[in-house]
UniProtKB/TrEMBL annotation:
Keyword presence, Transcription regulation: no
Name this protein carries in UniProt: Septin
Organism, as annotated: Sparus aurata
Gene name as annotated: SEPTIN8
PROSITE patterns, sorted: G_SEPTIN
Top-rank taxon, per record: Eukaryota
GO molecular function: GTP binding
Coiled-coil intervals, chain numbering: 321-406
């Protein structure tokens, strides 16, 4: 429907008509009630408090039953959340109750991040609901709504005021959930101390800007009781599942050597006030506030984060389709930009690798050339040596031939009779030369022979 069409209906004058008789739409509230009763309700409580502060006992006391209670250890390395869901029935009303306990809260030396798992848990439940809401085929009425409707923050009764862990955690939680602080184990402090502690806690909460849940006063039916109860905050509670005989009545109480503390006695503690406010008077408001305030805030932030908005910069109303188209275009442009970046990166990488390869090829080529030069040099040297050796051999052969010729001549001379002493000497020498030539082929000896023959003037 176009915006101007809606405006026409808005400006249209409405007339009040009297009915001629009973029509039946006055039963609408009854229809709603019976439908809600048939559907059942769900309620989710988050208990935040140090280990052993009395969370489980208070829940057992509150619902007058015994839930599964597993004692937590004091040596957890971080804070965890332990949800447990139960189906309860009172008269004909079914209640799906989820109780979430913190485990290990306040047990770490560094408590700076203790609030984080709690916030994450609350957000995760909102996210779960939002996902269901955004589905095409959604079943919000049938799905188990796990969003936290109330957070009971357990304050230790010891000490003069709030610890910094209490303040930091409550400050982080107050915009996410309906926060109700309670003073646990209130039977361990005297009445006057308790009054002082309450005043101190409230003033610290106010001065630190912690917004706790205020019981609503708009509805006339509950305005009086709620505004009176707001002045009693934070409630000082005592928990016990033990039935003790007081007078002739069995009551829930804690028994001490000097007497008993009755859980449901308003002079002893604020347990009844808490139960009344939480379950009997304001349960629906807590559920409504969770949906209308805390969930709406989460949803708005989440959708804005995703790029959805109700108006464009010129305050024109923005349709979901337009937002989707704009977001899609933005996404495609982003994708294109990223693709281009990747492509450019790839091209640069290829270029770099190519340059590296070219450099390596050049180096290899230079090395090859160097080796080739070295090889040629070596070849030349060898060639030189070969030539020298050949020359040496030729010279030797020449000398050998000369020596053999001389030897032949000498042998001829030896075969004639010696006339002179010199000839005698020559004859003996020739015999020796012959002997040597017969027995020895050594080249150096040949050359020495030739030298000797020169000496004796045989050449
Ligand atoms: P974890 O789940 O282990 O963190 O402990 P919790 O916070 O659930 O405490 P739980 O209810 O188990 O109580 C721990 C102890 O405190 C038990 O011995 C209880 O009897 C005792 N206790 C519980 N509530 C009160 C109370 O109101 N007053 C006193 N004096 N003791 C209490
Ligand atoms: Mg417990």
């Amino acid at each position: 429907m176009a915006a101007n069409e809606i405006d026409v209906f808005a400006n249209e004058e409405k007339r009040t008509l009297d009915l001629g008789g009973h029509v039946g739409f006055d039963s609408l509230p009854d229809q709603l009630v019976s439908k809600s009763v048939a559907q059942g309700f769900c309620f989710n409580i988050l208990c935040v408090g140090e280990t052993g502060i009395g969370k489980s006992t208070l829940m057992n006391t509150l619902f007058n039953t015994t839930f599964e209670n597993e004692e937590a250890s004091h040596y957890e390395s971080d804070v965890q959340l332990r949800p447990q869901t139960y189906d309860l029935q009172e008269s004909n009303v079914n209640l799906k109750l989820t109780i979430v306990h913190t485990v290990g809260f306040g047990d770490q030396i560094n408590k700076e991040e203790s609030y984080k798992p709690i916030l994450e848990y609350i957000d995760a439940q909102f996210e779960r609901y939002l996902e269901e809401e955004l589905k095409i085929r959604r079943s919000l009425f049938n799905c188990h709504d796990t969003r936290i409707h109330i957070c009971l923050y357990f304050i230790a009764p010891t000490g003069h005021s709030l610890k910094s862990l209490d303040l930091v955690t409550m400050k982080k939680l107050d915009s996410k959930v309906n926060l109700i602080p309670v003073i646990a184990k209130a039977d361990t402090v005297s009445k006057s101390e308790l009054d002082k502690l309450k005043i101190k806690i409230m003033s610290e909460l106010v001065s630190n800007g912690v917004q706790i849940y205020q019981f609503p006063t708009e509805d006339e039916a509950v305005a009086e009781i709620n505004s009176s109860m707001n002045t009693h905050l934070p409630f000082a509670v005592v928990g016990s599942v033990d039935d003790v005989k007081v007078g002739n009545k069995m009551v829930k109480a804690r028994l001490y050597p000097w007497g008993s503390v009755q859980v449901e006695n308003e002079n002893h503690c604020d347990f009844v006030k808490l139960r009344e406010m939480l379950l009997r008077v304001n349960m629906e408001d807590l559920r409504e506030q969770t949906h209308a305030r805390h969930y709406e805030l989460y949803r708005r932030c989440k959708l804005e984060e995703m790029g959805f908005k109700d108006t464009d910069p010129d305050s024109q109303s923005f349709s979901l389709q337009e937002t989707y188209e704009a977001k899609r275009k933005e996404f495609l442009l982003d994708l294109q930009r990223k693709e281009e970046e990747m492509r450019q990166m790839f091209v640069n990488k290829v270029k770099e690798t190519e340059a590296e390869l070219k450099e390596k090829e050049k180096e290899l080529h230079e090395r090859f050339e160097q080796l080739k030069r070295m090889h040629q040099e070596e070849k030349r040297n060898l060639e030189e040596k070969r030539r020298e050796l050949e020359e040496e051999m030729n010279a030797f052969n020449r000398r050998k031939v000369a020596a053999e010729t001389l030897m032949g001549q000498a042998l001829q001379g030896c075969s004639q009779p010696f006339k002179k002493d010199k000839d005698k000497k020559n004859g003996c020498f020739c015999e020796r030369v012959l002997m040597l030539l017969n027995n020895n082929t050594d080249l150096s000896r040949y050359s020495r022979l030739i030298t000797l023959m020169h000496y004796f003037h045989w050449t």
